[in-house]
Write a structure and sequence with these properties.
There is one protein chain. This protein has a 4-stranded mixed β-sheet, with no helix packed on it. The protein has a 3-stranded antiparallel β-sheet with strand order 3-11-10, with no helix packed on it. A 3-stranded antiparallel β-sheet has the order 4-8-7. It is globular, with a radius of gyration of 21 Å. It has 17 helices and 12 strands. By secondary structure, the protein is of the alpha+beta class.
Length: 389
Protein backbone atom coordinates (compact mmCIF):
# COMPACT_ATOMS: atom_id res chain seq x y z
CA UNK A 1 0.00 0.00 0.00
CA UNK A 2 1.22 3.50 -0.82
CA UNK A 3 -0.73 5.20 1.98
CA UNK A 4 -1.74 4.91 5.63
CA UNK A 5 -4.38 6.38 7.95
CA UNK A 6 -2.85 8.63 10.60
CA UNK A 7 -4.24 10.70 13.45
CA UNK A 8 -3.73 14.43 12.91
CA UNK A 9 -5.13 15.98 16.10
CA UNK A 10 -8.21 15.89 18.33
CA UNK A 11 -10.08 18.53 16.33
CA UNK A 12 -9.39 17.25 12.82
CA UNK A 13 -9.25 13.56 13.66
CA UNK A 14 -7.58 11.28 11.12
CA UNK A 15 -6.42 11.67 7.56
CA UNK A 16 -4.82 9.62 4.79
CA UNK A 17 -1.13 10.17 4.10
CA UNK A 18 1.23 9.00 1.38
CA UNK A 19 3.82 6.48 2.61
CA UNK A 20 5.91 6.96 -0.54
CA UNK A 21 5.86 9.26 -3.55
CA UNK A 22 2.66 8.90 -5.60
CA UNK A 23 2.71 9.98 -9.22
CA UNK A 24 0.02 12.10 -10.83
CA UNK A 25 -2.71 9.86 -12.37
CA UNK A 26 -1.77 6.91 -10.13
CA UNK A 27 -4.63 4.96 -8.56
CA UNK A 28 -4.23 5.34 -4.78
CA UNK A 29 -6.94 2.84 -3.84
CA UNK A 30 -10.28 1.35 -4.88
CA UNK A 31 -13.07 0.60 -2.44
CA UNK A 32 -16.56 -0.88 -2.31
CA UNK A 33 -18.97 0.85 0.08
CA UNK A 34 -20.15 -0.31 3.47
CA UNK A 35 -23.68 0.61 2.33
CA UNK A 36 -25.09 2.34 -0.76
CA UNK A 37 -28.52 3.19 -2.12
CA UNK A 38 -30.03 4.89 -5.18
CA UNK A 39 -31.78 8.22 -4.63
CA UNK A 40 -35.58 8.16 -4.41
CA UNK A 41 -36.46 10.62 -7.18
CA UNK A 42 -33.77 9.14 -9.41
CA UNK A 43 -35.30 5.67 -9.10
CA UNK A 44 -38.87 6.93 -9.45
CA UNK A 45 -38.10 8.50 -12.82
CA UNK A 46 -36.79 5.31 -14.42
CA UNK A 47 -33.06 5.60 -13.92
CA UNK A 48 -32.79 1.82 -13.95
CA UNK A 49 -29.88 0.61 -11.82
CA UNK A 50 -28.77 -2.54 -10.03
CA UNK A 51 -30.26 -2.41 -6.54
CA UNK A 52 -26.94 -3.55 -5.06
CA UNK A 53 -24.05 -1.98 -7.02
CA UNK A 54 -25.95 0.80 -8.85
CA UNK A 55 -24.69 -0.23 -12.29
CA UNK A 56 -26.89 1.29 -15.00
CA UNK A 57 -29.15 -1.37 -16.52
CA UNK A 58 -29.73 0.47 -19.80
CA UNK A 59 -27.37 0.30 -22.75
CA UNK A 60 -25.71 3.61 -23.60
CA UNK A 61 -28.00 3.99 -26.60
CA UNK A 62 -31.16 3.17 -24.60
CA UNK A 63 -30.18 5.67 -21.94
CA UNK A 64 -29.36 8.31 -24.52
CA UNK A 65 -32.71 7.84 -26.26
CA UNK A 66 -34.63 8.15 -23.00
CA UNK A 67 -32.72 11.20 -21.75
CA UNK A 68 -32.86 13.01 -25.08
CA UNK A 69 -36.52 12.13 -25.71
CA UNK A 70 -35.46 10.90 -29.14
CA UNK A 71 -36.29 7.20 -29.78
CA UNK A 72 -34.44 7.23 -33.10
CA UNK A 73 -31.10 8.58 -31.93
CA UNK A 74 -28.06 6.44 -32.69
CA UNK A 75 -24.78 6.79 -30.87
CA UNK A 76 -21.82 7.43 -33.16
CA UNK A 77 -18.79 5.16 -32.77
CA UNK A 78 -20.98 2.64 -30.95
CA UNK A 79 -20.15 -0.43 -32.99
CA UNK A 80 -20.40 -3.20 -30.40
CA UNK A 81 -22.93 -2.37 -27.67
CA UNK A 82 -22.66 -4.68 -24.69
CA UNK A 83 -25.95 -6.40 -23.82
CA UNK A 84 -27.26 -5.68 -20.34
CA UNK A 85 -28.06 -8.81 -18.35
CA UNK A 86 -30.86 -8.13 -15.87
CA UNK A 87 -31.39 -10.54 -12.97
CA UNK A 88 -34.52 -10.19 -10.83
CA UNK A 89 -35.41 -11.15 -7.29
CA UNK A 90 -37.84 -14.06 -7.57
CA UNK A 91 -39.96 -12.63 -4.78
CA UNK A 92 -40.36 -8.92 -5.54
CA UNK A 93 -38.85 -8.40 -9.01
CA UNK A 94 -36.19 -6.00 -7.75
CA UNK A 95 -33.52 -5.77 -10.45
CA UNK A 96 -29.80 -6.55 -10.39
CA UNK A 97 -26.96 -6.66 -12.89
CA UNK A 98 -25.85 -10.17 -11.94
CA UNK A 99 -26.63 -13.22 -9.84
CA UNK A 100 -23.70 -12.23 -7.60
CA UNK A 101 -25.24 -8.82 -6.84
CA UNK A 102 -28.67 -10.36 -6.23
CA UNK A 103 -27.20 -12.91 -3.80
CA UNK A 104 -25.09 -10.30 -2.00
CA UNK A 105 -28.13 -8.06 -1.58
CA UNK A 106 -30.16 -10.96 -0.17
CA UNK A 107 -27.38 -11.84 2.25
CA UNK A 108 -26.79 -8.29 3.44
CA UNK A 109 -30.23 -6.59 3.55
CA UNK A 110 -32.80 -7.69 0.97
CA UNK A 111 -34.09 -10.78 2.79
CA UNK A 112 -35.69 -8.41 5.32
CA UNK A 113 -36.81 -5.82 2.76
CA UNK A 114 -38.20 -8.19 0.10
CA UNK A 115 -41.98 -7.89 0.01
CA UNK A 116 -42.37 -11.62 -0.75
CA UNK A 117 -40.88 -12.61 2.61
CA UNK A 118 -43.57 -10.74 4.55
CA UNK A 119 -41.07 -9.35 7.07
CA UNK A 120 -41.79 -5.69 6.36
CA UNK A 121 -44.85 -3.58 5.55
CA UNK A 122 -44.36 -2.70 1.89
CA UNK A 123 -47.11 -0.05 2.00
CA UNK A 124 -45.25 1.51 4.93
CA UNK A 125 -41.99 1.40 2.97
CA UNK A 126 -43.63 3.13 -0.01
CA UNK A 127 -45.20 5.72 2.30
CA UNK A 128 -41.83 6.47 3.89
CA UNK A 129 -40.28 6.94 0.46
CA UNK A 130 -43.12 9.29 -0.54
CA UNK A 131 -42.78 11.26 2.71
CA UNK A 132 -39.09 11.69 2.01
CA UNK A 133 -39.65 12.84 -1.57
CA UNK A 134 -42.13 15.45 -0.33
CA UNK A 135 -39.39 16.82 1.94
CA UNK A 136 -36.28 16.43 -0.21
CA UNK A 137 -36.47 17.53 -3.83
CA UNK A 138 -33.92 17.07 -6.62
CA UNK A 139 -31.09 17.71 -7.14
CA UNK A 140 -30.82 15.03 -4.45
CA UNK A 141 -28.11 14.79 -1.80
CA UNK A 142 -29.51 12.04 0.45
CA UNK A 143 -32.19 9.38 0.80
CA UNK A 144 -34.04 7.99 3.83
CA UNK A 145 -33.83 4.56 2.21
CA UNK A 146 -30.12 4.29 2.97
CA UNK A 147 -30.94 4.48 6.70
CA UNK A 148 -33.57 1.75 6.25
CA UNK A 149 -31.02 -0.35 4.36
CA UNK A 150 -28.40 0.21 7.07
CA UNK A 151 -30.81 -0.97 9.77
CA UNK A 152 -31.78 -4.01 7.67
CA UNK A 153 -28.06 -4.82 7.31
CA UNK A 154 -27.64 -4.69 11.07
CA UNK A 155 -30.62 -6.97 11.64
CA UNK A 156 -29.29 -9.49 9.09
CA UNK A 157 -25.65 -9.26 10.25
CA UNK A 158 -24.12 -12.45 11.67
CA UNK A 159 -21.71 -10.44 13.82
CA UNK A 160 -23.67 -7.48 15.16
CA UNK A 161 -20.81 -6.37 17.41
CA UNK A 162 -18.46 -6.01 14.43
CA UNK A 163 -21.18 -4.16 12.49
CA UNK A 164 -21.64 -1.73 15.41
CA UNK A 165 -17.89 -1.14 15.62
CA UNK A 166 -17.77 -0.21 11.92
CA UNK A 167 -20.71 2.15 12.35
CA UNK A 168 -19.06 3.72 15.39
CA UNK A 169 -16.03 4.53 13.22
CA UNK A 170 -18.29 6.76 11.12
CA UNK A 171 -19.85 8.22 14.28
CA UNK A 172 -16.48 9.22 15.73
CA UNK A 173 -16.54 12.70 14.19
CA UNK A 174 -20.29 13.25 14.60
CA UNK A 175 -20.82 15.56 17.58
CA UNK A 176 -24.07 16.38 19.35
CA UNK A 177 -23.74 19.95 18.09
CA UNK A 178 -23.58 18.71 14.49
CA UNK A 179 -26.84 16.75 14.58
CA UNK A 180 -29.44 19.55 14.35
CA UNK A 181 -27.34 21.52 11.86
CA UNK A 182 -26.77 18.56 9.52
CA UNK A 183 -30.38 17.35 9.62
CA UNK A 184 -31.56 20.91 9.00
CA UNK A 185 -29.22 21.19 6.01
CA UNK A 186 -30.44 17.89 4.51
CA UNK A 187 -34.11 18.78 4.88
CA UNK A 188 -34.10 22.58 4.55
CA UNK A 189 -35.99 25.31 6.41
CA UNK A 190 -39.45 24.14 5.41
CA UNK A 191 -39.11 20.54 6.57
CA UNK A 192 -36.49 20.54 9.32
CA UNK A 193 -39.17 19.86 11.96
CA UNK A 194 -40.37 16.77 10.04
CA UNK A 195 -37.46 14.65 11.33
CA UNK A 196 -39.90 13.45 14.01
CA UNK A 197 -42.30 12.20 11.31
CA UNK A 198 -39.52 10.36 9.48
CA UNK A 199 -38.31 8.70 12.68
CA UNK A 200 -41.83 7.57 13.60
CA UNK A 201 -42.37 6.04 10.16
CA UNK A 202 -39.00 4.25 10.24
CA UNK A 203 -39.71 2.81 13.72
CA UNK A 204 -43.20 1.71 12.67
CA UNK A 205 -41.73 0.11 9.54
CA UNK A 206 -38.73 -1.76 10.89
CA UNK A 207 -38.92 -1.59 14.70
CA UNK A 208 -36.24 -0.43 17.11
CA UNK A 209 -35.61 -3.58 19.14
CA UNK A 210 -31.93 -4.28 19.72
CA UNK A 211 -30.79 -1.14 17.89
CA UNK A 212 -28.87 0.42 20.80
CA UNK A 213 -30.90 3.64 20.77
CA UNK A 214 -30.23 4.42 17.10
CA UNK A 215 -33.93 5.05 16.52
CA UNK A 216 -34.77 7.15 19.56
CA UNK A 217 -34.88 10.83 18.64
CA UNK A 218 -31.27 11.59 19.56
CA UNK A 219 -29.99 8.43 17.88
CA UNK A 220 -31.94 9.20 14.71
CA UNK A 221 -30.41 12.70 14.59
CA UNK A 222 -27.00 11.06 14.93
CA UNK A 223 -27.74 8.78 11.96
CA UNK A 224 -28.69 11.81 9.87
CA UNK A 225 -25.54 13.62 10.94
CA UNK A 226 -23.47 10.51 10.24
CA UNK A 227 -24.65 10.41 6.64
CA UNK A 228 -24.54 14.18 6.25
CA UNK A 229 -20.88 14.32 7.26
CA UNK A 230 -19.59 11.05 5.80
CA UNK A 231 -21.63 10.01 2.77
CA UNK A 232 -20.26 10.19 -0.76
CA UNK A 233 -22.42 10.83 -3.80
CA UNK A 234 -22.34 7.99 -6.37
CA UNK A 235 -22.99 8.35 -10.08
CA UNK A 236 -23.14 5.60 -12.70
CA UNK A 237 -24.03 5.96 -16.36
CA UNK A 238 -23.78 3.67 -19.36
CA UNK A 239 -23.40 6.83 -21.47
CA UNK A 240 -20.33 7.83 -19.45
CA UNK A 241 -18.94 4.31 -19.83
CA UNK A 242 -19.38 4.59 -23.60
CA UNK A 243 -17.81 8.06 -23.69
CA UNK A 244 -14.84 6.95 -21.57
CA UNK A 245 -14.21 4.07 -23.97
CA UNK A 246 -13.58 6.53 -26.81
CA UNK A 247 -10.20 7.98 -27.64
CA UNK A 248 -9.64 11.70 -27.02
CA UNK A 249 -9.99 12.33 -30.73
CA UNK A 250 -13.26 10.38 -30.88
CA UNK A 251 -14.62 12.26 -27.85
CA UNK A 252 -14.12 15.51 -29.78
CA UNK A 253 -15.83 14.15 -32.88
CA UNK A 254 -18.61 16.60 -33.93
CA UNK A 255 -21.23 13.81 -33.83
CA UNK A 256 -20.31 12.98 -30.21
CA UNK A 257 -20.35 16.68 -29.26
CA UNK A 258 -23.83 17.03 -30.81
CA UNK A 259 -25.08 14.10 -28.70
CA UNK A 260 -23.88 15.75 -25.48
CA UNK A 261 -25.29 19.12 -26.54
CA UNK A 262 -28.70 17.51 -27.01
CA UNK A 263 -28.45 15.64 -23.70
CA UNK A 264 -27.52 18.86 -21.91
CA UNK A 265 -30.52 20.64 -23.42
CA UNK A 266 -33.02 17.90 -22.51
CA UNK A 267 -31.66 16.41 -19.27
CA UNK A 268 -29.27 19.04 -17.91
CA UNK A 269 -27.40 17.69 -14.90
CA UNK A 270 -29.62 14.61 -14.58
CA UNK A 271 -27.51 12.24 -16.69
CA UNK A 272 -26.63 9.55 -14.14
CA UNK A 273 -28.11 6.87 -11.97
CA UNK A 274 -27.37 8.63 -8.68
CA UNK A 275 -27.25 7.66 -5.04
CA UNK A 276 -25.25 7.88 -1.84
CA UNK A 277 -22.83 5.56 -0.06
CA UNK A 278 -20.65 5.23 3.02
CA UNK A 279 -17.02 4.22 2.44
CA UNK A 280 -14.87 3.17 5.40
CA UNK A 281 -11.59 4.39 3.91
CA UNK A 282 -12.69 7.29 1.69
CA UNK A 283 -14.57 8.87 4.62
CA UNK A 284 -11.17 9.48 6.25
CA UNK A 285 -10.03 11.71 3.35
CA UNK A 286 -9.96 15.34 4.46
CA UNK A 287 -10.85 18.34 2.33
CA UNK A 288 -8.60 20.84 0.62
CA UNK A 289 -9.57 23.67 -1.72
CA UNK A 290 -6.44 22.66 -3.70
CA UNK A 291 -6.88 18.86 -3.66
CA UNK A 292 -4.19 16.46 -4.80
CA UNK A 293 -6.59 13.55 -5.41
CA UNK A 294 -10.08 13.04 -6.81
CA UNK A 295 -12.85 10.46 -6.52
CA UNK A 296 -13.94 8.66 -9.67
CA UNK A 297 -16.38 5.88 -10.53
CA UNK A 298 -14.50 4.27 -13.40
CA UNK A 299 -16.20 0.87 -13.06
CA UNK A 300 -19.72 2.15 -13.71
CA UNK A 301 -20.82 0.88 -10.28
CA UNK A 302 -20.62 2.05 -6.66
CA UNK A 303 -16.97 0.94 -6.58
CA UNK A 304 -14.92 4.06 -5.85
CA UNK A 305 -11.47 4.89 -7.23
CA UNK A 306 -9.20 7.50 -5.63
CA UNK A 307 -6.81 8.96 -8.22
CA UNK A 308 -3.88 11.34 -7.74
CA UNK A 309 -4.33 14.56 -9.73
CA UNK A 310 -0.95 15.93 -8.62
CA UNK A 311 2.35 14.36 -7.64
CA UNK A 312 2.14 13.58 -3.92
CA UNK A 313 5.29 13.40 -1.81
CA UNK A 314 5.91 10.87 0.96
CA UNK A 315 4.23 11.93 4.26
CA UNK A 316 2.05 14.47 2.43
CA UNK A 317 -1.65 14.30 3.29
CA UNK A 318 -3.89 12.99 0.50
CA UNK A 319 -6.82 15.41 0.23
CA UNK A 320 -9.94 15.55 -1.92
CA UNK A 321 -12.38 18.41 -2.41
CA UNK A 322 -15.82 18.34 -0.82
CA UNK A 323 -16.80 21.12 -3.24
CA UNK A 324 -17.71 20.83 -6.89
CA UNK A 325 -15.61 22.38 -9.63
CA UNK A 326 -17.68 25.56 -9.83
CA UNK A 327 -17.59 26.06 -6.05
CA UNK A 328 -13.81 25.57 -5.99
CA UNK A 329 -13.44 28.47 -8.41
CA UNK A 330 -15.33 30.76 -6.01
CA UNK A 331 -13.63 33.11 -3.60
CA UNK A 332 -12.44 32.05 -0.15
CA UNK A 333 -15.43 33.53 1.66
CA UNK A 334 -17.93 31.65 -0.54
CA UNK A 335 -16.03 28.37 -0.15
CA UNK A 336 -15.88 28.80 3.63
CA UNK A 337 -19.60 29.57 3.74
CA UNK A 338 -20.52 26.41 1.80
CA UNK A 339 -18.21 24.18 3.87
CA UNK A 340 -19.51 25.56 7.17
CA UNK A 341 -23.15 25.17 6.13
CA UNK A 342 -22.74 21.65 4.77
CA UNK A 343 -19.87 20.11 6.75
CA UNK A 344 -19.60 22.32 9.85
CA UNK A 345 -15.90 23.10 9.68
CA UNK A 346 -13.71 26.08 8.96
CA UNK A 347 -11.21 25.26 6.19
CA UNK A 348 -7.60 26.13 6.95
CA UNK A 349 -6.06 24.47 3.89
CA UNK A 350 -3.00 26.18 2.32
CA UNK A 351 -5.13 27.79 -0.41
CA UNK A 352 -7.50 29.34 2.13
CA UNK A 353 -4.55 30.50 4.23
CA UNK A 354 -3.00 32.11 1.14
CA UNK A 355 -6.26 34.03 0.58
CA UNK A 356 -6.76 34.93 4.24
CA UNK A 357 -6.34 38.66 3.57
CA UNK A 358 -9.04 38.67 0.88
CA UNK A 359 -12.15 40.66 1.87
CA UNK A 360 -14.86 38.58 3.55
CA UNK A 361 -17.52 39.30 0.96
CA UNK A 362 -19.26 37.23 -1.65
CA UNK A 363 -18.89 38.77 -5.09
CA UNK A 364 -21.92 39.75 -7.17
CA UNK A 365 -20.80 37.14 -9.68
CA UNK A 366 -20.91 34.40 -7.03
CA UNK A 367 -24.25 35.65 -5.69
CA UNK A 368 -25.63 35.47 -9.21
CA UNK A 369 -24.33 31.91 -9.55
CA UNK A 370 -26.00 30.85 -6.31
CA UNK A 371 -29.30 32.44 -7.31
CA UNK A 372 -29.29 30.60 -10.63
CA UNK A 373 -29.42 27.14 -8.98
CA UNK A 374 -32.38 25.08 -10.10
CA UNK A 375 -35.46 25.40 -7.88
CA UNK A 376 -37.24 22.35 -6.47
CA UNK A 377 -40.11 22.65 -8.92
CA UNK A 378 -37.90 23.13 -11.99
CA UNK A 379 -35.74 20.15 -10.98
CA UNK A 380 -38.78 17.90 -10.70
CA UNK A 381 -40.09 19.23 -14.00
CA UNK A 382 -36.77 18.27 -15.60
CA UNK A 383 -37.18 14.72 -14.29
CA UNK A 384 -40.74 14.62 -15.62
CA UNK A 385 -39.70 15.81 -19.03
CA UNK A 386 -37.04 13.11 -19.21
CA UNK A 387 -39.64 10.55 -18.18
CA UNK A 388 -41.99 11.95 -20.84
CA UNK A 389 -44.93 12.13 -18.46
Amino acid sequence: MSFSVRKIDEEKGRGIFADCKIQKKDTIFEEDPFVSCQFSWNKLYKYMACDYCMKSLETAEEMCRRLSNDPDIELPLHMFPQPIDIVVCDGCQEVYCSVECRDLAAKLYHHLLCRANGLIDIDGLNQLDQTWREMHYPPETATINIIVRLIAMYKQADDKEEFSQILNEFCRNTTNEACPSISHQLLGDQFADKLVVLREQVVQLIGDEGLHGWLNMEGFKHLFALFGQNQQGVGSSSISQWHNSLSEQEQNDPAVVRIYTKLDKEAGEFLNCEGAALYKLQSKCNHSCKPNAEIRFDHGTHRLTLKAIEDIEADEEICISYLNECQLESGRHTRQKILMENYLFFCDCPWCEAQSLDPDITSEEEDSSEESDMSDSSSIEMYRRIDNI
